[in-house]
TrEMBL record:
Catalytic activity: 2 a phenolic donor + H2O2 = 2 a phenolic radical donor + 2 H2O
Key words of the record: Calcium, Disulfide bond, Heme, Hydrogen peroxide, Iron, Metal-binding, Oxidoreductase, Peroxidase, Secreted, Signal
Source organism of the structure: Dendrobium nobile (Orchid)
Active site: 61 (proton acceptor)
Family: Belongs to the peroxidase family. Ascorbate peroxidase subfamily. Belongs to the peroxidase family. Classical plant (class III) peroxidase subfamily.
Pfam families: peroxidase
Site (described: Transition state stabilizer): 57
Signal peptide (from-to): 1-18
Protein name as it appears in the record: Peroxidase
UniProt-listed InterPro entries: Haem_peroxidase, Haem_peroxidase_sf, Peroxidase_pln, Peroxidases_heam-ligand_BS, Secretory_peroxidase
Length: 324
């Protein structure tokens, strides 16, 4: 009965649509828009398989602050420090992919497709290229004209599940969304600085986190030496899903690592220690397609957070700066 309850909870996790978005928004004004996005993205992924993880993170950071308005793409100017300059964004990558897609779209239908939609579409296709389900993404987002470092906020990887949930609820996402979207950590890389305390000085104890698998601890200490604590500028990258055979595949391996005490980030590992999240994690391990289905639904919800539509915002001609 408990397992059935969790399944029903997942399937009942409804998507709160933004009213002015619609499927195939550009079908008349730029009918090849989604084809162009997918083609340019595929070209980049062939050269760098980490691109999907980079775009997932870029999209998440964009949506979580002021909404999915492409403001994370804007460069700083002499009189403004932009969102991308906030410390959690120093390791963001993938901006050049969005730039290339925008360039191709401007050749075919200038001034039509927003940067916010390009990022959302490229992220959707990144999920599919990584083995997740492709999902029907409504478009029609407009671009924001404000990007301030002072506005940026993202949940820390070292907070508790309840603290992270409060941040997610602020943008109308729930515990299922939180647990599911953390599954994106099955792909991509992570800097040692995000978890180095778990290896050497967890919670100021001078000891490693006793909840981390000992074999994983030893491997991570080899790749993230204690000297990283003193010189964080020398901060190696490691796979988020360390030790798995599918580091670029969006699958249930992340959740298996959570159950085996092999999650790298503190927040990720805590999913095993709360009653509801543990049950969700276990269901995803047993039913990978349930995870993929719910991941699509949660991504749709994320992608419609505080979007600009209609005459709000603008359609930026260059994703890195607002129009003159």
């Amino acid at each position: 009965m408990a397992a059935l309850t969790i399944v029903l909870l997942l399937l009942a996790n409804s998507v709160a649509f933004a009213s002015s978005l619609e499927l195939h928004f550009y079908r008349k004004t730029c009918p090849k828009a989604e084809i162009i996005v997918r083609a340019v993205l595929h070209r980049h992924i062939q050269q760098d398989p980490s691109i999907p993880a980079r775009l997932l993170r870029l999209h998440f950071h964009d949506c979580f602050t002021t909404g999915c308005d492409g403001s994370i793409l804007i460069d700083s100017t002499d009189d403004n420090i932009a969102e991308k300059e906030a410390p959690p964004n120093f390791s963001l990558r993938g901006f050049e992919v969005i730039d290339d897609i925008k360039t191709e779209l401007e050749k075919v239908c200038p001034g039509i497709v927003s940067c916010a939609d390009i990022l959302a579409l490229a992220t959707r296709d990144s999920v599919a290229f990584s083995g997740g389900f492709s999902y029907a993404l409504r478009t029609g987002r407009r671009d924001g004209t404000v990007s301030r470092m002072a506005d940026f906020h993202i949940p820390s990887p070292s907070i508790t599940v309840s603290q992270a949930l409060a941040d997610f609820q602020r943008i109308k996402l729930d515990l299922v969304d939180l647990t599911t979207l953390l599954g994106a950590h099955s792909i991509g890389f992570c800097h040692c600085g995000f978890f180095i305390d778990r290896l050497y000085n967890f919670n100021g104890t001078g000891l490693p986190d006793h909840e981390m698998d000992s074999n994983l601890l030893n491997r991570l200490r080899q790749k993230c030496p204690a000297s990283t604590l003193q010189n964080i500028s020398i901060d190696p990258n490691i796979f988020m899903n360390e030790g798995t055979l599918t580091p670029f595949k969006l699958d249930q391996s992340f959740f298996q690592n959570v159950l085996n005490a092999k999650a790298i980030l503190q927040l990720d590992q805590q999913l095993a220690f709360t009653n509801v999240t543990n049950k969700i994690v276990s269901r995803y391990v047993d039913r990978p397609n349930l995870f993929r289905k719910q991941f699509s639904q949660s991504m749709i919800k994320l992608g419609e957070v505080n979007v600009l539509t209609g005459k709000e915002g603008e359609i930026r001609l260059n994703c890195r700066r607002v129009n003159k």
